[in-house]
Amino acid sequence: MQTEARMGALSSGHGSGGGAVDGGARRYSAHDQQQNHHQQQRQQLQHQPQIGTVAHLIAGGVAGAVSKTCTAPLARLTILFQVQGMHSDVATLRKASIWHEASRIVHEEGFRAFWKGNLVTIAHRLPYSSISFYAYERYKNLLQLIPGLDRHRDSVSADVCVRLFGGGLAGITAASVTYPLDLVRTRLAAQTNTMYYRGISHAVYAICRDEGMRGLYKGLGPTLMGVGPSIAISFSVYETLRSRWQVERPYDSPVLVSLACGSLSGISSSTVTFPLDLVRRRMQLEGAAGRACVYKSGVFGTFKHIIRTEGFRGLYRGILPEYLKVVPSVGIVFMTYETLKSIFSSISADD
C-alpha cells in the first residue's frame, strides 16, 4: 500500500509538470539540512574545550563536597533508616516516619546533628569525586581507542556502552582508594545518643584496635558490586540525556539541563543499586562499638538474612529519603562540575 501511494504521488507529479517532485526535493533538502544541523551539534558536544588534570580533579572534588554538604540531613536520615532492625536500640525506629525521625534528631541531638559525620564525608567525597570524574574521562578516552569501535563512532549504542563501562571502572577505582573514609563516615552518622567514636582519627584508631586493619574494609564487596553499576548508570544516563537535550534544545540554560539530567540519572542509579547500598551500610556497622556481629555469611548471606527477617521491602528501607536526597544531590554535583569546567576552560582559553 505504501509503495502504491508513492507511485501514485510520482505519477500525479509527472501529470502536473513535476511540482510534486520539486516539493519532494524541497522536503528532502529541509530534512537533510536538519540532519546536518544535528550532526554539527553532536560534533560541538564531542569537541568541547578540554581542561587539565588538576582542573578536572578540583572540579570533581568541589562538586562532590558541595553536593554532600547541601544534602547531609537527608543522607543521615537514609543511613538511620537503612540500619533499622539491625540492633535492638534502632529497632524502635522501625515504623518511624521521616518527619518523626527528623524531629527526634532535633529534640535529642540538636539541629547540628543533621551534619554529624559531614566532615569525614567531605574528606571522603573530595578525593572520591575527583578520582571518579577524572578516571571517567580517562577510561572513556581509552575505551574509544578499542580497535573497530571507530566504525561505530556515531552509533548511540556504542556511546552508551563506552559511558557504562567507563563509569563502572571509574566508580570501582574511586571506591577502592577511598573506602576506609566511607566506612568511618557511616559509623559516625549512625551514632545517635551514645557516642562511641569521638571523631575521624578516634574512629580509625578504635576500628583498627577492635577489629584490625581489615575492619576498615568491611562491606567493600557489596560496595564494589554496587558502585560500578551505580556510577555507570549515573554517568551514562546523564550524558545521554544531556547530549540529546542539547541537540534538540541547544539554547536552554546549561545549569537547568545539568540539574534536570543529573536528577533523573540519580533516581535511575539509586533505584537499581539501593539494595546493595543497604547491605553495604549494614556490613559496615558489623561489630561497631563492640556490638555482636549480626551478619556472618558474606554479601549473599546478608541478603538472605534481610529478606527472611524483614521481607523484600527490607531491601528498600530508607528509599524515600534517598530519593529526596538524590534528586538535588546528583543534580548539584553535575551542575557544579559543569560550571567549574566552563570556568576553567574559559580561563585556559584566555591564557
TrEMBL record:
<feature type="compositionally biased region" description="Low complexity">
    <location>
        <begin position="31"/>
        <end position="48"/>
    </location>
</feature>
<feature type="repeat" description="Solcar">
    <location>
        <begin position="158"/>
        <end position="244"/>
    </location>
</feature>
<keyword id="KW-0106">Calcium</keyword>
<protein>
    <recommendedName>
        <fullName>Mitochondrial carrier protein</fullName>
    </recommendedName>
</protein>
<keyword id="KW-1133">Transmembrane helix</keyword>
<keyword id="KW-0999">Mitochondrion inner membrane</keyword>
<feature type="region of interest" description="Disordered">
    <location>
        <begin position="1"/>
        <end position="48"/>
    </location>
</feature>
<dbReference type="InterPro" id="IPR023395">
    <property type="entry name" value="MCP_dom_sf"/>
</dbReference>
<feature type="repeat" description="Solcar">
    <location>
        <begin position="51"/>
        <end position="142"/>
    </location>
</feature>
<feature type="repeat" description="Solcar">
    <location>
        <begin position="253"/>
        <end position="343"/>
    </location>
</feature>
<keyword id="KW-0472">Membrane</keyword>
<dbReference type="InterPro" id="IPR002067">
    <property type="entry name" value="MCP"/>
</dbReference>
<dbReference type="GO" id="GO:0055085">
    <property type="term" value="P:transmembrane transport"/>
</dbReference>
<comment type="similarity">
    <text>Belongs to the mitochondrial carrier (TC 2.A.29) family.</text>
</comment>
<keyword id="KW-0496">Mitochondrion</keyword>
<keyword id="KW-0812">Transmembrane</keyword>
<keyword id="KW-0479">Metal-binding</keyword>
<dbReference type="InterPro" id="IPR018108">
    <property type="entry name" value="MCP_transmembrane"/>
</dbReference>
<dbReference type="GO" id="GO:0046872">
    <property type="term" value="F:metal ion binding"/>
</dbReference>
<dbReference type="GO" id="GO:0015748">
    <property type="term" value="P:organophosphate ester transport"/>
</dbReference>
<dbReference type="GO" id="GO:0005743">
    <property type="term" value="C:mitochondrial inner membrane"/>
</dbReference>
<keyword id="KW-0813">Transport</keyword>
<keyword id="KW-0677">Repeat</keyword>
<dbReference type="GO" id="GO:0015711">
    <property type="term" value="P:organic anion transport"/>
</dbReference>
<dbReference type="Pfam" id="PF00153">
    <property type="entry name" value="Mito_carr"/>
</dbReference>
